[in-house]
Amino acid sequence: MIGGREAAFAFRSTRSSSPVASQSSKMATGRTQLQTFLWVAALGLCGTVLALLTVAFVRAYSARPSTAARPAFQALKDSQRRVEAAFTPRERRELKLVLQGAIQLQTVSFSADDQNTTALAEFGSYIQKAFPAVFASTFIQHEVIGEYSHLFTVQGSNSQLQPYMLLAHIDVVPASPEGWDVDDPFSAEERDGYIYGRGTLDNKNSVMAILHALEFLLRRNYQPHRSFYIGLGHDEEVGGQKGAKKIVAKLESRGVRLSFLLDEGSFIYDGIVTGIEKPVATIAVTEKGAITANLTVMLEPGHSSAPPKRTSIGILSEALTKLEQHPLPNLFGHGAEIMMFEQLAPDFRFPLNIIMANLWLFAPLVGKFLEQTPTTNALVRTTTAITMFHGGIKSNVIPPSANATVNFRIHSSQTVDEVLEIVDKTIDDKRVKIEAEDAFDPLPISSWDDHTFGVQVFRQTILDVFPEVGSIVPGVCIGNTDSRHYGSLTNDIYRFNPVFFKNTDLPRFHGLNERISTENYEKQVEFIFQLIQNSDINPPTESHASLHEL
Ligand SMILES: *[C@@H]1O[C@H](CO)[C@@H](O)[C@H](O)[C@H]1NC(C)=O
Ligand SMILES: *[C@@H]1O[C@H](CO)[C@@H](O)[C@H](O)[C@H]1NC(C)=O
Ligand SMILES: *[C@@H]1O[C@H](CO)[C@@H](O)[C@H](O)[C@H]1NC(C)=O
Ligand SMILES: [Zn+2]
């Protein structure tokens, strides 16, 4: 994932002892008070508005997502020929070694024009050796796109079924050895049941899990019924212009329409959501938008002995101060984040269940609560980050110009234009020139209901592989992924990494000691192994879905 973490770390437990949570005890106290406040608010209501509460209870317990679609799906599933995962000890060893080899190749993206192309080329040869069945298969076509990205077309036996697509990326962000528990972030060292290394979560785990799951299916003589594509981008961390964009262009030229697409993004949150005991599988249905804005002030240069009242630096500083002091509005309840809270409502312990089931009433209160930490704040509004500032040339010269860069991440209920209009009004100073670049709107919200094929497949596969998961809910990605380039191929894009994510994992993303447990990695491979088989089922709702599309 690029530039930001997924937002569901949300409601980080106040009992948490993670480094991030303890960064600010003030914030933690604030949160405890807020939680108490929520309790009091709810209990207060209990005492006074009995009728309202009755409604609330009914809502809380009727909001549970319907499981009606499952039995039919199950019945069909049993009529198909399935192969068992049941990985042997030898296969499990192979899984680990092959992942370690992939981590050891330093496929680093330093910037859009500076990538380790030696390692990217080596990666291409590496997967050919590691997955002989995939590369030898008569019904799988492999293409190298944009020199280092890979596109696989797996031809299913039933061409009537609409294909789907799995995405992952090969490149990683830089890592220097300082601060790591292991000697080298590219050694892929195993310690206490974990493989440590850059890319173990973001995102070589997915690259290797997809290919290995397919390899094991082929070795068990499985041929998929439904066609699918695998897209492995090589520049996701620096925007995906050379990889993902070109893969999309190729598929567009072939007239491909996808049933759904699955990329990295969100996780199975374990012990992270306050008030929910069981792990929560969060599948992101959208991503925030972004704007990189350059602010420039130009004034006549002169000598500092007779200065004008204001210099370019002073004027620009004032504009930036206004931006920080007037954040964009809290929009909790107006965007896709509400779906997650509503669907999770019945799983919260009392009284949070009542509050979440009645966001029509409590949204402002919950919104205020979520504002308190940077990650949850990112969920409720368009965020503002001043990232660069330049000004001045000499200690006794009036600066001719000053400029700054501000990075906005756009809430799913706003657009680039709306944000720029608000920014303009907030700064309200003609001397400050604002130029937007790299701007894109929040991504469209993918379908989330019992009739959506992708959602059925994810639900079934999570039930099959992770029985301990208590809830499966839609979420919002506050960072961006390669999948944002795929909007022309499908409306149903999902972002999910089938990996357990605990409080202490938060700083590992793009940070120190990134790691995955070998047990979890095997489960991730099994997830893809079952997902491919579950996608071969032709559920009763699909004819409805395709009719809908015509
Ligand atoms: C590039 O990758 C190769 C192979 O993994 C490695 O030997 C080399 O040190 C890397 N170079 C940089 C600058 O990261
Ligand atoms: C915006 O600022 C950045 C950083 O100074 C610079 O690299 C970029 O070229 C600028 N873009 C425009 C359109 O001025
Ligand atoms: C930003 O300001 C610095 C210092 O005044 C100047 O050197 C630089 O060229 C400016 N950059 C842009 C993109 O305007
Ligand atoms: Zn990533």
Question: Explain this structure to me?
Answer:
- Helices cover 38% and strands 20% of the residues.
- By secondary structure, the chain is of the alpha+beta class.
- The protein contains 18 helices and 19 strands.
- Helix 5 packs antiparallel against helix 8 and helix 8 (204-219) packs across helix 17.
- Strands 3, 4, 5, 8, 9, 10, 17 and 18 form an 8-stranded mixed beta sheet that branches.
- It has 2 domains: 71-271 and 465-535, Aminopeptidase; 287-440, Alpha-Beta Plaits.
- The model is unreliable at 4-34, 36-72, 74-79 and 540-550 (pLDDT under 50).
- Strand 3 and strand 4 (149-154) form a beta hairpin.
- One 2-acetamido-2-deoxy-beta-D-glucopyranose is lined by residues 296, 390-391, 401-403.
List cofactors, ions and other ligands.
Answer: 2-acetamido-2-deoxy-beta-D-glucopyranose, zinc ion
**SS-based class:** alpha+beta
User: How many domains in all?
Assistant: 2
Question: Main β-sheet: number of strands, strand sense, barrel status?
Answer: 8 strands, mixed
Number of helices: 18
Give the uncertain stretches in residue-range form: 4-34, 36-72, 74-79, 540-550
Would you kindly provide a brief summary of this structure?
The chain has about 550 residues and is of the alpha+beta class. Helix content is about 40%, strand content about 20%.
